[in-house]
Each structure stands twice: as structure tokens, then as C-alpha cells.
């Protein structure tokens, strides 16, 4: 189980690094827009990301 968790975390790092590597200017604009969002909007966005990821994992497995 620890190996799977470590693999998943490594994949997260690879995926998170794609945007700043491929389109740094767009990534900076996106970060600026996110910094202007309220806490409630960020929480809702985080919840939607978690639910989407959970649903995708459920479908894959």
C-alpha cells in the first residue's frame, strides 16, 4: 500500500509541474485569479476536485 501511495504522490507532482513547465505565463495568470477568489469559492473548488477524483478512481477500479 505504501508503494501505491508514494507512486500516486509522485504522479501528482508530475501533473502539477506540467502547467508551469508548458505555459508559465498562463499559470501565473491563473494563480493571480485564484488569489482573488474568496475562501468559500476555494473550498467549493477543492470539494469538486476531490469528488471528481474520487469518482474517477471508482470508475477506474
Q: What's the arrangement of secondary structure elements?
A:
Elements: H1 2-22, H2 24-35, H3 39-60
Helix pairs in contact: 1-2
Features:
single chain; 61 residues; mainly alpha; 90% helix; transmembrane; DUF2065; transmembrane helix
Provide a brief overview of the structure.
By secondary structure, the chain is mainly α. It has helices at residues 2-22, 24-35, 39-60.
What does this structure look like?
The chain is an all-alpha fold and 61 residues long. It has one domain. The protein contains three helices and no strands. Helix 1 packs across helix 2 (24-35). The protein is extended and about 40 Å long. The mean pLDDT is 94. This is DUF2065 family protein. InterPro entries: DUF2065. It holds the Pfam family DUF2065. The chain crosses the membrane at residues 42-60. It comes from Halopseudomonas formosensis.
The rough form would be described as extended
Q: Could you say how many structural domains there are in total?
A: 1
Number of strands: 0
Order of helices and strands: HHH
Helix content: over 70%
Question: What's the helix count?
Answer: 3
Q: Which structural class fits the helix and strand makeup?
A: mainly alpha
The biggest beta sheet reads: none
Distance between the termini: 15 Å
Proportion of β residues? Answer: under 5%
Low-confidence stretches: none
User: What is the overall pLDDT average?
Assistant: 94
Radius of gyration: 14 Å
Keywords: Membrane, Transmembrane, Transmembrane helix
Protein name: DUF2065 family protein
Transmembrane segments: 42-60
Amino acid at each position: 500500500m505504501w508503494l501505491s501511495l508514494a507512486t500516486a504522490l509522485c504522479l501528482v507532482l508530475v501533473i502539477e509541474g506540467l502547467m508551469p513547465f508548458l505555459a508559465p505565463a498562463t499559470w501565473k495568470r491563473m494563480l493571480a485569479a485564484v488569489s482573488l477568489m474568496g475562501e468559500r469559492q476555494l473550498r467549493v473548488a477543492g470539494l469538486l476536485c476531490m469528488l471528481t477524483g474520487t469518482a474517477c478512481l471508482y470508475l477506474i477500479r
